[in-house]
Amino acid sequence: MMIQATKKVLAESLSSLERIVQARSSNPILTYLKLEATGAGLRLSGTNLELDLETSVAAQVSEEATVVVPAHLFSQIVRSLSSELVELELHGNELNIQGGGFKTKLQTGDLDAYPELSFPTHFDTVLDAREFSRALSSVRYAAATEAFQAVFRGIKLEMSEKRTRVVASDGFRLALHDFAGSSAEKSLILPARAVDELIKLLKDGEVHLTFAGSVLSLTTPRWKLNLKLLEGEFPDYERVIPREVKLSVRLSATQLREAVNRVAVLADKTANNRVEFQVSGSSLSLASEGDYGRAQDVLEVFQEGTEPALTLAFSAKYVTVALGPLEGEVLIQLSGSNTPALFKAAEDSGYSAVVVPLRV
Amino acid sequence: MMIQATKKVLAESLSSLERIVQARSSNPILTYLKLEATGAGLRLSGTNLELDLETSVAAQVSEEATVVVPAHLFSQIVRSLSSELVELELHGNELNIQGGGFKTKLQTGDLDAYPELSFPTHFDTVLDAREFSRALSSVRYAAATEAFQAVFRGIKLEMSEKRTRVVASDGFRLALHDFAGSSAEKSLILPARAVDELIKLLKDGEVHLTFAGSVLSLTTPRWKLNLKLLEGEFPDYERVIPREVKLSVRLSATQLREAVNRVAVLADKTANNRVEFQVSGSSLSLASEGDYGRAQDVLEVFQEGTEPALTLAFSAKYVTVALGPLEGEVLIQLSGSNTPALFKAAEDSGYSAVVVPLRV
Prior knowledge:
- The structure is a homodimer of 360-residue chains.
- Helices cover 18% and strands 44% of the residues of chain A.
- Chain A is of the alpha+beta class.
- Chain A has three domains: 2-113, DNA Polymerase III, Chain A, domain 2, CATH 3.10.150.10; 125-238, DNA Polymerase III, Chain A, domain 2; 241-355, DNA Polymerase III, subunit A, domain 2 (DNA Polymerase III, Chain A, domain 2, Roll).
- A nine-stranded antiparallel beta sheet of chain A has the order 14-11-12-13-26-25-24-18-22.
- The interface between A and B is medium-sized, with 33 and 33 residues.
């Protein structure tokens, strides 16, 4: 085969594949990626067994051929070229890579040992790529990194005609984000690590979804993905969402975040960075205490509800992270000192966060 | 005491002190910094026993006082304030820090246990701060991080009326940088870690130097530093600088750096990332070989000298790092395949690097 492709386009596609394909593996063939030169261009694919990824780049192909090459080395070589064009030529089991005065002979791998990757050609439903990506990235933080149940390291995707919802929780906090519905009625759990890659790959336009047992396939104009789903039962998160609001406050999300960070400097690191929230008379007073002293900040708020005053304590980090996806004003809905608090945008953005308070 | 200072100015000074003062220490008082409120403003000082640092910021002081406070906490608090002014007030052993609606009571430390820091008021000589900083940062990379002799982790400062020279070497490579001389005749070894801080603190204008036994003191309009010198004999570096040039080549430093990086992708990581340099007929050919294949790049060069051709091998990283401080064209002076090579700017910038080749 003899292939000519644009360095910039090829390098961009490779940088995404490089994030999926492991640099080291007990099964070395998994550190390779597959190049398929066809009349339609150059197809690139790779896998980490949890996520398969495929893309195509425009290329002039004189002869069809398929090879597997070490993913990270190949990507590094292409990225380092000073020329605008990359020329690939297969000689036996050596792939010549050329650009400018530079020539490489790269050993290719065992094509027969490479796992078979196949992507669907029919689609079950469709979502707006940008909204889906935004929803996933706003709840991602609430998934657990380590937990006894794997489902806590997943993000639940609930689809119906009415709405699509993504939910993540580690048992101490919960984040959810609603956006426009789809034609499917389906509930799945996506592994959070694979979601990190999905967020990076979803851009504009539409993403098509195909359901096939334990795999969700996603197709965008540029990428094809197979994503291995998590099995198990996602916890019944609805019951931690506070229903009866006794007191609600509204204030600038940025001001609150900065004030919590300030007060948390003095908070005891060994006691969850505990910050006390005291609401009364249209003011929110934040206080902390630790080995080196005490800190206090007072913010003016808009206050409503049947309860005239309430005191709660939160882990500072949980509050500042929950405020992360919010712009403008935050609405905090409280139902008691020992019941979960709800944080959402005063002008509903689809996003809500629930934080369980520390014991008073 | 009651002190008012500008948050921005105070936070800037604290961020430099924070880099010097350790966050943890077997002697906890060393994690503190000293605040001295005087008629002239607020003086701040800290130490890690290798480096003492002092600065002053403008402040309105109603009553003179001296306290020590946990350096990192104090800095974090000041940085987090939303107000333009910081108010400090001492009550017993608590320092009140106030700004906007925020109030902190910070426990102060044991002033008597704090080490006595003193800075000179007379100066022995003077250097241009920007040139000194530039020279130090261009040779810094060549100092060893770990070595049997501490002097290899140091940077030699040689001062005479004719010129000032800084030199660093780890035995495999050497970097030196010459600039305008001083009125002193002196030779010292500065610890590389302290040099890293010095580089950040030296800006425009002049820096005054004071010699006192094993300590070098440096004074700029903003900072006072005491720097504990390394003892021992710096190796006789002059003998590795090649004298008799048999072949020299000239080419773009950036092009060479990029080409070495490209070729090094295929080089054997377990064999020093060996890249072969072959000069002949006004071309420089770079080649490498490793488990995954071979790479080659050819660059046009301007070639001079009595020897028509030479082949050497270098560790790729040593060459690319040596080229780092060079702009424009690099002049490479060779005297043989197994003798050190000299790299410097074609238009002399004061900087030279010597790299010992790998065995051919």
